[in-house]
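hiii, so i know i said id send this last week but things got crazy w the move. better late than never?? heres the sequnce for the chain we talked about at the cafe, plus the structure i predicted for it. fair warning i was half asleep when i ran it
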Amino acid sequence: MSRIGKKPIQIPKGVDVKIDEGEVNVKGPKGQLSTPLPSGVTAKVDNGSLLIERQDDEHRAVHGLARALIANSIKGVTDGFTRQLDVVGVGYKVEQKAGALLFSLGYSHPIEFPIPKGMEVKLDRMQKTIPQYQTTISITGTDKQRVGQLAADMRGLRQPDAYKGKGVRYSEETLKLKPGKTGK
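okay and structure toks below
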């Protein structure tokens, strides 16, 4: 039996869970999300908690996955998810325009990055000990997968350099810089 799959999900106050055929719809103070249920997995509400059950051992692999995805939906509509990126490098900068971010990352042209609907992006300048630190980008949304994908797409614009650490990186990411030609 899956240890994660059999744990009940507590439904907080103010969250409405509806189970339709093949999907679970979650509505809360921050928005609404729907999570598809894999075949062989069912969900039911029991005493203020949500239980995920599987038909047999053939569906064992998706049992814990379905529970984790539904738990992320419930957390997303109540608290939301946040991912932070740091822009590091001399001359690298980010500006916020209407519905987009404008990146200057050392290329011959600025990059305009559109912000999808349902996502919130903030730019901050914090006290950090990173050399050549410029800006922190905070991405907030209800869907954990979309927040993570947006952060990965932004990081992919200019991944951190292995020698100086310049580029766009996750705030919690630690880089081990390579020594240059003269370093040993």
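btw The mean pLDDT is 91. thought thatd interest u
miss u guys!!
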